[in-house]
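Re: the multi-chain job from yesterday

Posting the exact lines I submitted so nobody has to dig through the queue logs.
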Amino acid sequence: MISAFIITFFYKSKKAYLARKITFFMEYWEKRFLEGGKIWGEKPSKTAIHALELFRKHEVNKILVPGAGYGRNTKLFTDANLEVVGIEISEPAINIAKKFNPKAHFFQGSVLNMPFDDEKYDGIYSCNILHLFLKDDRISFLKKCYKQLRVKGFAFFVVFSDKESSFGKGRRVEENTYESKPWRAAHYFTENDLKEHFKEFLVVETGIIEDTENHGELGPHTHILRYIFAQKK
Ligand SMILES: C[S@@+](CC[C@H](N)C(=O)[O-])C[C@H]1O[C@@H](n2cnc3c(N)ncnc32)[C@H](O)[C@@H]1O
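And the result, C-alpha cells for all chains:
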C-alpha cells in the first residue's frame, strides 16, 4: 500500500517535472524567437552544408529535422529537393519557418514526445539541440530518433563540443553539463562521449566544424561544434 503510494507519487512528480521542463523550454524559446526573429540569419549552418554532401552521397531523400528552429537549415535541404519534416517546440519559430521555407512540413511539439507521425526517414539532421538535454533525455531522444529511421538510415547530429569557450562556466549539473542560467543547461561533448551516445549506430564519421554567429549580447562569436554521421544497423 505504502509502496504503491510512493510509486504513484514518484511517477506523478516525475511527470510533473517533465511537464515543467517542457513548459520552460517552450517559454524560453518562444521568447527568444519573438524577440530575435531569425536569430542566426538566413544562411544555413556550415554543418548543414556538410550534412547535405553526405546525404547526397548516401542517397538520402526524406529527412526529419528535430529542433528545426525557423528553417535556416531545412531550406537548404528542400532547395536541394529533399523531402523535409521539421519538429520544433516554439510556435513563433514555426510561424517564421512556414513563411521562410514553405516547402518543408513542420510539427509543433517537443522532440521528447516524438514520434509525431508513422513515417520512417532515410535521414535525420539535428543541429544544436541534443546538448540542451540532461543525460536521461538525451538517451531517450536518441532512442526515438533511432526508431524513426529506416534500417540503414543515416543520422547527422551537431552538438556543443568540449572546445567551446563556455565549457565549464556556470553551475555544474551533470558530468560535462553546465547551467549558464537556471534550467538552461548545455552538455559539452568529447569525441568519445558523442560516440558512446551513438553506440547503437554504426559511426561513419565524426569531426569538428567552426560556425560563426552574430547575435544578441555576444555579438560575433564562433562555436566549435562537434558532429557525428552514423548509420542505423
Ligand atoms: C540552438 S536552437 C537551433 C535551431 C536550429 N537547429 C538551427 O540550427 O537553426 C535550438 C532549437 O531547438 C528548439 N527546441 C528546444 N527544445 C526543444 C524541444 N524539447 N523540442 C523541440 N524543439 C526544441 C528551440 O526552440 C530551438 O529552435
